[in-house]
Every structure is written in C-alpha cells, then in structure tokens.
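Run log // design_07
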C-alpha cells in the first residue's frame, strides 16, 4: 500500500499501535524518546518506507523499520504488516524480564483477603457475625 501524501511520524506510531494515543506519540517525540539514526526526531517528520526508528516506551524499547505507510489505526494483526521489528536480541530479553516482573495490581487467587463469598462462609462456619 503506497501512499503519496505525507504521513506524520506521530500518526504513524499511533496507527501501528506503538502508542495508545497520538498525544502520547507526539509527547514521546518531543521528549526525545523517538530517534532516527541516533538523533531525536519531531512528531511532524514525514515517514518514508525504509526508515528505521528507535522508540522507547514505558513498557519496552523498540527498533522498527517502516515497510508500509499506514494513516489510520487498524487492528493489531493488520498493523504489524506495516513495520518490521528489528529490536536487538539483548533488548528483547530485557523487555521480557521487565514484563515478567510487572504486577497488574490484582491479587493472586486464594492468597490474601477473603472474597465476600468466602467471608460469609467463614462467618457461618465460625457461628455468626463476629464484630
């Protein structure tokens, strides 16, 4: 899919689902977290096929090569066809270590405070309300 019109970098990064919003994509560009050939690039930079970008997000580090231009956000399975992930092996391993240690805030099952149902069962077992 070849587009002749110019496509902004922040819009492209949002469309291929590296960032959840265009605002986050442009903020990352302005903060210097998106680089091309080692130099920071602005959000309004035109994207071209064959460009290689280094992107740092909160979750991971990416190195991608543009293989197609995508202006509108599509589902993930379609979006991955428009870039090639060329992240070095050591960075991918660091990303996996980070993901493994990431906690979602949900407690593991059957550990910690009882649920409301478990609390009622305990109260019934113990012989009524204990307050």
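design_07 sequence
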């Amino acid at each position: 899919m070849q587009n002749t019109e110019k496509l902004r970098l922040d819009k492209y990064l949002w469309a291929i689902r590296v960032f959840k919003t265009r605002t986050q994509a442009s903020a990352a560009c302005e903060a210097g977290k998106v680089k091309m050939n080692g130099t920071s690039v602005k959000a309004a930079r035109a994207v071209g096929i064959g460009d290689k970008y280094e992107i740092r997000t909160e979750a991971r580090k990416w190195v991608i090569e543009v293989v197609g231009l995508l202006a509108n956000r599509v589902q993930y399975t379609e979006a991955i066809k428009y870039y090639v992930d060329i992240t070095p092996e050591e960075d991918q391993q660091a990303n996996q270590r980070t993901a493994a240690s990431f906690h979602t805030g949900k407690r593991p099952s059957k550990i910690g405070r009882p649920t409301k149902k478990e609390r009622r069962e305990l109260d019934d077992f113990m012989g009524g309300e204990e307050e």
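The chain has five helices and five strands.
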